[in-house]
Structures are given as C-alpha cells and as structure tokens.
Amino acid sequence: MTLIIGALLFALYQQLIIEQRYQVTQNLQAEVQRYQLLAKSVSRRNFVMQIRAADSKSALVAWQNGDEVIGALSFMPDDMPYLPKTKDFPILTAGPDKLHILTGGLVETRYGPVLISSRTDHFAALIDKFVSASATAVMLTIVFALALGYLFSKAILRRLVHYNRLSEQIEHGHYDTRLPVSWRNDEFDILANQFNKVLDTLEKNLTAIRGITDNIAHDLRTPLSHLRIGIEQLINQPAENLPEHCANLLEELDHCLSTFNAMLSLTRIEEGQQTLERQPLSMHNMCYDLRDMAEALAEVNKQTLILNLGQDFTTQGDKHLLFQAFFNLVDNAIKYSGENAIIEIRQNNNRIDIIDNGPGIPDNCKEKVFDRLVRLDPSRHHQGTGLGLSMVKAIITRHNASIHLSNNCPGLMVTIEF
C-alpha cells in the first residue's frame, strides 16, 4: 500500500511540474507574439507607452532604452537567454513578500530586445505544500499499515499456533481431533476443511485396518488351529490314514495361502502395479462365457440361470480380470440366493445387471461388503476369503466403470456400468 501510494504521489508530482512548465511556456509564448506584432504595427513612442501600461498580472515586461529600463522592472538581469529558452532570476519588491522568483527570456523586436517574464514562485510554493502533504500522507499510511498489519498478523499467528497445538495432539494419536472452522470462510477455513477431510479419511482407514486385522484373526484362526492339531495328530496316525489326513491339512493350508495371495493381488490392482492387457471386449461374448461357466453350478443348486441380452457394447479391457470380476458376482448369487432361485444376467449397451431373488443384503451393509475381509454373518458357513467383492470393485474401478448394489425385492441387483 505504501509503495503504491508513493508511486501515485510521485506521478502526480511529476504531472504538476509538467503542468507548471506548460503554463509558463504558453503564457510567455503568447506575450512574445503580442510584442513582436506590436513592435511592427506602432511607433517607438507608442511602443514605450504600451510597455509602461502593460498589466503585470499576466507578465512582467521590461525594455532597455539606452541607460533607462522601461516597464515593470528596474533593471535588466545579466545573461538572459532568448526565448523559448528561459532563466530564473529573483527580484525584490516593497510588498509583504519581498522576494519573488521570475522565469523569462528575451524576445527580439524592431525596437530591440524586450524582457518578458512570469512569476513562478507561487507555483514553487504550491509544489512545496504538495510535497509536504504527500510526505505526511505517506507517513500516516506507513503507521496505519504497520498497525493494521500487526493486528492482522497477530490474528493469523494466533490461529496458526492453535492449529499447531491441534496437530501435535493428532501426532500423539488423538485422531478424532479436528481443526476449527470459523464463520469467515477464509483461506484458513478452506485449509481446515480440507485437513479435516484428510483426518476423516485417515480415521476411516485406521478403523478399516483394525477391522481387517480382526477379520484376519477370525478367518485364519480356525484353519491354522486345524493345521496345528493335524500336525500333532500326524505322529499318531496309522500309515494307511496319512494320505487322507495330509490332504485335509493341505486344503486348510491352501485356504490360508489363497487368502494372502488374494490380498496381495488386490493391492497390486488397487495401486496400479498390475498392468492391464487391454483388448476390445464384446459384452455379448463375455455374458455367453459367464453363462457357460456358471450354468453347471446353478444346476447343482437347482437354480435357474437366465441370460437376457440387449444391444451389444465393446470396451477396452483385460479379458481375464473382467471375467474374474463378473464370474465372482455370478458365483456369489449362486452361493447365497438359495435353492430354486432364479439368477438373471441382463446386458444392454454399456450396462450389465446380475439379479437374483435370494435374501439380498441389508441397506446398511451394501457399501461395507466391498471392504477387505468383510463377510456378513449369514455367509460365514461358506468357504471364502472375504476379498471377492473387494477384488471385483478394484477391477471394475481400474476399467473406469462403476458398480452399484440395489434391492430386487426380494433379492439383490448388482449393476455395472462402463
């Protein structure tokens, strides 16, 4: 603010100087033309009379006639230049302001050089007052800016110190701490809102990690206990029972390994570490393959699998990953919809619906089922890792598609849109 005001005042000061010079120049130029024309048109005697009768308010005119100086001045200053060049010179008067500053020059006429000058000290006084007022304004601006800046910085620092204290609480594990948001909705409030969103995500992720840990302990405790008991019993097993007993232990071990392999694969897909082998894929062909693969499983459970195709749609994607995701959804429908259920694969353009008339999923669990190692209590008696739907969502998201669960009344409808 101080620099801007100072620059504006300096520009105004320069404009005043230019304006002063312009007015003096215009005044002197008008007088030059007047006396040159007067000298050409009147006699010497009339010329002298005109100089003596000249109005001193517009210009001070002097003419030297021999040793006598005629006009408004009592002497002719030395080394005066010819106009348009000018020179400043002082004169003494009998008035209250004894010293005046004049600016003028000589003009050549038929009767000799004539001195034409104009008073400029009042311009100088005006500029001095302007400079003094400008300096006062700049000083007041500096004082006001410093005072306001001090108060403003104190308010900012007070909020920063408060934010710093809250961040230290978060650093010490109080993840439920949130930065305050004021009614001003300024930049600090925008930052606080964004930081609070990060904390919400962090707290949600920590809660998810705790839930995953509990689920891992729950899902792997049983097979690992079976492995331990089985290994202890190997010592006392008859030789003829060893192959069957070892096969059971290997099945339990394979279940543990499949859980960890699925978690690693899911992480690679979510983090983009697994390269997608993209190729043009027809949704009609994908749905035909799904029906051929799942039809036998549905018949075993005495279920009806229906394929309903509309307009075909072609997308760029990884054939194996997308088929894995779709088959997982169809397999879940076959597992959990019960006997004599009707399962429909419906496709139209860029949308695929997998519909069943089973028990469905409660509304408050529809988003939770996509989290890792989450298995709803009714499904605990089925063999599985609890990572199937997490894998499905990761694959669908990598292909820039969306997945949504809704009620079929009764049953569940899974919608995938590319």
Automatic annotation (TrEMBL):
<dbReference type="Pfam" id="PF02518">
    <property type="entry name" value="HATPase_c"/>
</dbReference>
<dbReference type="Pfam" id="PF00512">
    <property type="entry name" value="HisKA"/>
</dbReference>
<keyword id="KW-0902">Two-component regulatory system</keyword>
<keyword id="KW-1133">Transmembrane helix</keyword>
<dbReference type="InterPro" id="IPR003594">
    <property type="entry name" value="HATPase_dom"/>
</dbReference>
<keyword id="KW-0808">Transferase</keyword>
<protein>
    <recommendedName>
        <fullName>histidine kinase</fullName>
        <ecNumber>2.7.13.3</ecNumber>
    </recommendedName>
</protein>
<keyword id="KW-0418">Kinase</keyword>
<keyword id="KW-0812">Transmembrane</keyword>
<keyword id="KW-0472">Membrane</keyword>
<dbReference type="InterPro" id="IPR004358">
    <property type="entry name" value="Sig_transdc_His_kin-like_C"/>
</dbReference>
<dbReference type="InterPro" id="IPR005467">
    <property type="entry name" value="His_kinase_dom"/>
</dbReference>
<dbReference type="InterPro" id="IPR003660">
    <property type="entry name" value="HAMP_dom"/>
</dbReference>
<feature type="domain" description="HAMP">
    <location>
        <begin position="154"/>
        <end position="207"/>
    </location>
</feature>
<dbReference type="InterPro" id="IPR036890">
    <property type="entry name" value="HATPase_C_sf"/>
</dbReference>
<feature type="domain" description="Histidine kinase">
    <location>
        <begin position="215"/>
        <end position="418"/>
    </location>
</feature>
<dbReference type="Pfam" id="PF00672">
    <property type="entry name" value="HAMP"/>
</dbReference>
<dbReference type="InterPro" id="IPR050428">
    <property type="entry name" value="TCS_sensor_his_kinase"/>
</dbReference>
<dbReference type="InterPro" id="IPR003661">
    <property type="entry name" value="HisK_dim/P_dom"/>
</dbReference>
<dbReference type="GO" id="GO:0005886">
    <property type="term" value="C:plasma membrane"/>
</dbReference>
<feature type="transmembrane region" description="Helical">
    <location>
        <begin position="130"/>
        <end position="152"/>
    </location>
</feature>
<dbReference type="GO" id="GO:0000155">
    <property type="term" value="F:phosphorelay sensor kinase activity"/>
</dbReference>
<dbReference type="InterPro" id="IPR036097">
    <property type="entry name" value="HisK_dim/P_sf"/>
</dbReference>
<keyword id="KW-0597">Phosphoprotein</keyword>
